[in-house]
């Protein structure tokens, strides 16, 4: 009985943060445990060759956004699918090497290492919603909204005769943290929507 009580919490923890699946069950959007890190599936292709067993080609991106990999899983290969818990926070400010956030449910303030925000820090502004991704009790990544709106602070003036199809021009947003290519008709003071996945202009926002 003592042995069962000793190991039950460990079993429960493992079950809570990951699940065994077969390679054939991998789907786009899944987060997999791969080479001691967490990767999100971007693309998958099931292949059934004329000879040999079927397999799944998978393109994945690490949760921290640092790397992309392609891997071939056998259809019957055991893979660990990770469960990530999302918690929503408001961005407050940066203090030294930490980002200070406020939990939207409890209003508690927390400090998170800025190294987790390398890819999204340029999008942070007051009250932007940040999602912390937890795997068990560890924060493994962060996300912001797909599209965010910013005021243009610097850009070249609009020249009469330019059209929408003219070459895009650089614009500075968010206190100089964000540089985006915008259409020629965009001017200082305009609000523009930016796609945070790749930092591209989406549209001029309605005031």
Task: Compile the SSE list and pairings.
Elements: H1 2-17, E1 18-22, E2 31-34, E3 37-47, E4 55-62, E5 68-74, E6 78-82, E7 85-95, E8 98-103, E9 109-113, E10 129-135, E11 138-144, E12 147-155, E13 169-173, E14 178-182, E15 191-195, E16 200-204
Antiparallel strand pairs: 1-6, 2-3, 2-6, 3-4, 4-5, 7-8, 7-10, 8-9, 10-11, 12-13, 12-15, 13-14, 15-16
Summarize the structure.
With 207 residues, the chain is mostly beta strands. 8% of the residues lie in helices and 51% in strands.
Describe the structure using short key phrases.
207 residues, mainly beta, SH3 type barrels, OB fold (Dihydrolipoamide Acetyltransferase, E2P), 3 domains, 6-stranded antiparallel β-sheet, 5-stranded antiparallel β-sheet, 1 helix
What does this protein structure show overall?
Pathway: Protein biosynthesis; polypeptide chain elongation. GO terms for molecular function: translation elongation factor activity. It is a single chain. The protein has three domains: 17-82, SH3 type barrels, CATH 2.30.30; 85-144, Nucleic acid-binding proteins (OB fold (Dihydrolipoamide Acetyltransferase, E2P), Beta Barrel); 148-204, OB fold (Dihydrolipoamide Acetyltransferase, E2P) (Beta Barrel). It is 8% helix and 51% strand. It has one helix spanning 2-17; strands spanning 18-22, 31-34, 37-47, 55-62, 68-74, 78-82, 85-95, 98-103, 109-113, 129-135, 138-144, 147-155, 169-173, 178-182, 191-195, 200-204. The strands form three sheets. The chain has a six-stranded antiparallel sheet. It has a five-stranded antiparallel sheet with strand order 9-8-7-10-11, with no helix packed on it. A hairpin with a 4-residue loop joins strand 15 and strand 16 (200-204). The longest helix is centred in the N-terminal third of the chain and has 16 residues, at 2-17.
